[in-house]
Design goal:
With about 550 residues, the protein is of the alpha/beta class. The protein is built from 24 helices and 16 strands. The chain has helices at about 40-60, 70-80, 85-95, 100-120, 120-125, 125-140, 165-170, 190-195, 230-250, 270-280, 290-295, 305-320, 355-360, 360-380, 390-405, 415-420, 425, 435-445, 455-460, 465-480, 495-500, 515-520, 525-540, 540-550; strands at about 5-10, 10-15, 15-25, 155-160, 175-180, 200, 215-220, 225, 265-270, 285-290, 320-325, 380-385, 410-415, 430-435, 480-485, 505-510. It is globular and about 80 Å long. About 50% of the residues are buried. The structure holds phosphoenolpyruvate and magnesium ion.
């Protein structure tokens, strides 16, 4: 694609407008399987050492300009590139005739296995080691180093896809917007972008062809991406952003419909940083703490004491407000190396979520013990819930362990159709339920949430998904227990109205989305939301549902979408 003015669409996953220059994220390269064998090792050894030194000094050079959080990561990676043990192992392979990229690849594999077997701190260095490998191999192949390049001016980051760790360490002041070619609306990259409040569009297929430096305008609400926008388009987008900002200025306080029906508006968090920024926002607490994000990239399970400290900190940040902590939801798209039961044909249908916690009981029990201790220490409004519950037996096992750990409020997530269908039975065992619409959509529609091509099936506006939400909510009414939503659906201002109309009592979302949802709620009565729910359920598909609800909504809502 040239830098000529063009426009294309993706899926908007984090609302807001961004205009700025493109910075492309180069992909990692694997070793060159066809490279010639090394016949004269001395010059090749020098070349590889030089590549490793360039990797190390390149990382060190960035140290003074990166965020505090990113600094230790860069330091550790640079140190690893200069590790004499690693260099010795590469040299030995070169002397034995391996080509340079293969020698790096194999030496790193061997070193990684060795570090993993040492456990603890050493094992945690494996991620850095792989980063060194990818950077060195790209250097040897004459390609740019992979990963987000150092940003010197505020830019729009463009990538095929981003690793959760990459997104999580982004500097918000320099990343104006994110556009990826892959991903779907509920992929974890999308979730993290929304979490950081950075406008983002995923599944914008053509974006990889936009050259570095080209001006890009991104509408993260609508999913529009404009290459080299005209002055008029830039002005239009800026005006839309201003109208949106104006509509949001009065959106403050508790979540409530026009006629006074309360709906708690809560923040989804995944890290301590998230907790600290979300707690400063006008939210009524956290409705989902995705604890697995604390442990991504770690090689060993955190100790009870380590975990307790983090939970105490999070609870203290939210003070009197509720914090719903979800126990580890590892597996499938969020693999943890210390919680791995081996290869599976279909990880999303495998031993993930609570299933993993029950298969490796100490994992779940340690976490519950840490949560119990954090609760005793703070006296905070801590509620705990389990991911991926499908049966009464699972809910009973979880509730028993959680209550034994001294936790006062125990819930389950409804993410599997079976749980939605049997919500009344499940809710008679636990104290509350929270619907994970991301997984509920995936499992209802049999569509992998990582597969951007299936975005239409994964749409939480699918009437089948809404019907399961309704069924879950009825289970809540029958048992007198509250049912909330903590999947991405709750952050869509229009869909939030439907959920409220279906009887949902709380909505938890990326904190950046709360203001728009609160403003939408205040424009509509509970009766209007109920009418919208009826219209959405009547529709034959997601588009029809959305349009029917839009037709019933206040005209001032449009600018929030
Ligand atoms: C969900 O599935 O909707 C959910 C909230 O959990 P996660 O996105 O972390 O799987
Ligand atoms: Mg889920």
């Amino acid at each position: 694609m040239s830098t000529e003015h063009t426009m294309f669409s993706g899926i908007g996953v984090s609302a807001g407008v961004a205009i700025g220059p493109v910075v492309q994220v180069p992909p990692a390269a694997s070793f060159d399987a066809d490279e010639p064998a090394t016949t004269d090792p001395a010059p090749v050894v020098d070349k590889v050492h030089e590549a490793l030194e360039q990797v190390a000094s390149g990382l060190e050079e960035r140290l003074t300009r990166v965020t505090e959080k990113a600094r230790p990561v860069l330091e550790a990676t640079a140190m690893m590139a200069r590790d004499p043990g690693l260099q010795g192992s590469i040299d030995a392979r070169l002397s034995a005739g391996a080509g340079p990229t293969r020698a790096v690849h194999e030496a790193v594999e061997e070193y990684a296995t060795m570090l993993s077997s040492l456990g603890g701190y050493m094992a945690e260095r494996v991620t850095d080691l792989y980063d060194v490998r990818d950077r060195a191999i790209c250097r040897l192949l004459g390609k740019p180093e992979p990963g987000i390049p150092e940003l010197r001016t505020p830019s729009i980051v463009v990538a095929h896809d981003l690793a959760p760790a990459e997104t999580a360490t982004m500097d918000k002041t320099l990343v104006l917007g994110i556009v990826t070619a892959a991903g779907g609306p509920t992929s974890h990259t999308a979730i993290l972008a929304a979490q950081l409040g950075i406008p983002a569009v995923v599944k914008a297929r053509d974006v990889m062809r936009v050259p570095d430096g080209t001006t890009l305008a991104v509408d993260g609400g609508k999913g529009d991406v404009i290459v080299s926008p005209t002055q008029a388009e830039q002005a239009d987008l800026t005006e839309r952003a201003q109208l949106r900002a104006a509509a949001l200025t009065d959106s403050q306080g508790a979540g409530v419909t026009q006629d006074g029906h309360s709906v708690a508006l809560l923040a989804n968090i995944g890290t301590l940083d998230d907790a600290s920024s979300a707690a400063k926002e006008d939210v009524e607490g956290s409705g989902l703490f995705r604890t697995e994000f604390l442990f991504l990239g770690r090689q060993s399970a955190p100790t009870v004491e380590e975990q307790k400290e983090i939970y105490v900190e999070v609870l203290q940040l939210f003070g009197e407000r509720r914090v719903v902590i979800r126990t580890l939801d590892a597996g499938a798209d969020k693999p943890l190396s210390f919680a791995n039961l081996g290869e599976e044909e279909n990880p999303a249908l495998g031993r993930r979520g609570l299933r993993l916690g029950l298969a490796i009981p100490e994992l779940l029990e340690d976490q519950l013990a840490a949560l119990g201790a954090a609760h005793r220490e703070t006296g905070a409004d801590l509620r705990v819930m389990a991911p991926m519950v499908a049966t009464c037996e699972e809910a009973e096992l979880f509730a028993e362990k959680a209550r034994a750990a001294g936790l006062p409020s125990v819930g389950i997530m409804i993410e599997v159709p079976a749980a939605a269908l049997r919500s009344e039975d499940l809710l008679s065992i636990v104290d509350f339920a929270s619907i994970g619409t991301n997984d509920l959509s995936q499992y209802t529609m049999a569509a992998d949430r990582m597969e951007g091509e299936l975005a239409n099936l994964l749409d939480p506006w699918q009437p089948a998904v809404l019907q399961l939400v309704q069924h879950s909510s009825r289970g809540g009414s029958a048992t007198g227990k509250k049912v909330g939503v903590c999947g991405e659906a709750g952050g869509d201002p229009l869909l939030a109205l439907v959920l409220v109309g279906l009887g949902i009592s709380s909505l938890s979302m990326a904190p950046g989305k709360v203001t728009a949802v609160r403003a939408a709620l205040r424009m509509h009565s509970l009766a209007a939301c109920e009418q919208m729910a009826i219209a959405a359920l009547k529709a034959r598909g997601p588009e029809e549902a959305r349009q029917a609800v839009l037709d019933l909504s206040d005209p001032n809502l449009e600018v929030l979408l």
